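#data-curation
PF: Archiving a pair of folding outputs for the training set. Convention for this channel: one message per protein, sequence first, structure tokens after, nothing in between. First:
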Amino acid sequence: MDAFVARQPILDRSNKVFGYELLFRNSINNNYCNLDGDGATIEVIKNSFINIGVDKVVGNNKAFINFTDNILKTDIFNILSPEIVIIEILETVDPTEEIVDICKNLKSQGFIIALDDFVFNTKYKKLLDLADIIKVDFRLTSGHDRKSVMNLVNRKNIKFLTEKVESMEEYNEAVSLGYSYFQGYYFSKPAIVSTKMIPENKLNNIKIIRELNKKELSLENIVMLMKKDMSLSYKFLKLINSANFSFRNKIDSLNQAVALLGETGVKRWLYYAIIKSISEDKPHIIISNSIIRAKFAELLVTKLSMKDDPFNGYLMGMLSMIDSILDKPMDEILNELFIPKVIKEVLTGEKTNEYAKVLELILAYEKGQWNIVSQISKELNLDENYIPEAYLEAINWAKDDNY
């Protein structure tokens, strides 16, 4: 499969995904620096809308796409929907009268216009009259400049988006300054701010995870703990009575449901349900990434025919962000959960093994670091063409609310 699109989430002030910036890539072996801006824009539009399908890439969210001067002057917008696409005008575009007229026309069609890597200059006055969103790079600006640009623009209709947010401190600063949208590696791997006690309503879920990882799994104990969570019990019985299983008679007993689903099925579904439950007060992208990583890792481990059960890959991906979910250090959490030693060593960074390489590949793929993905693929003797196929399958799997 030769269609590649890297995406980075953009969140609103409610920690909900507002959209994704689509990163320009056309090969797993190709870095963006080897592509010209015009070709990259065409490639990402082609891959997103034709080869893959934009619904699979961004779902019901907005797609931020960078546009160069040359592409703005084409008729490409005849095939793009203003309901989906946000036009991100690169900082290299000169705001000539022609460009301003083009933007006026795009606004009249309903497109949202964002100005990328914005640095205030009076030459942008006419574009500012048309802009809806201004992106400010937190790596290139200081605390003072991050606020002063808002004062200099001084337009109530414009919302500000901060990109390259890489820590909780920067995120909190952006919120306090009045930014509306947030983008950066922080949301792919949120930083640990402090150690907190696990809230009471999450303790039972942690006890279930602990029980799932004991050497001798007790389905009786699992059922007993599930009964303490009415929501979990209801969802479990709903699953077993769904069309996925098509049992002749309704199953209304947790003991019977657990027995029918089996040990691996119970483990898989409970991890999925519990991680979703304990992530309710966190940005949705965290749980989304956890679930995608779980399936992605399982598919890669299966493809590699690693000697251990592929469920270890699923478990590694599902727990890869649990430190951010519980606001506790990873090693402290895993010491309480009794997960397999080989996975604990990967998640705490204690040891490098095949699972660690798989996780490293997944993280690099999420960030569009194709050279690293290519290097690890060779080390694992993994067919690179399978990786985007597995990633798309993981995205669809997570979207379908599977277990």
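PF: Second:
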Amino acid sequence: MTASNFIKSIRNKYGYTQDDMAKMLGMTRQNYNKLENNPTKSSLDKIYCIFNLLNENIDEFLYALKQDYMSHTKEE
């Protein structure tokens, strides 16, 4: 699973929309969308806030992020 799909699946698990998450995190929906769709370019503190807010373990996400990075570097 990619890192962006991982964040989306966690959000969907709780039935939240991107707008809901954006409001809870104090950001615009557009900025949340960017964070969710490209977490490698996002601030890790905001990503941590998502997992903390939803009381989820961030370890699996970090593993997915590492896998994304490793597959990207192999393609180059």
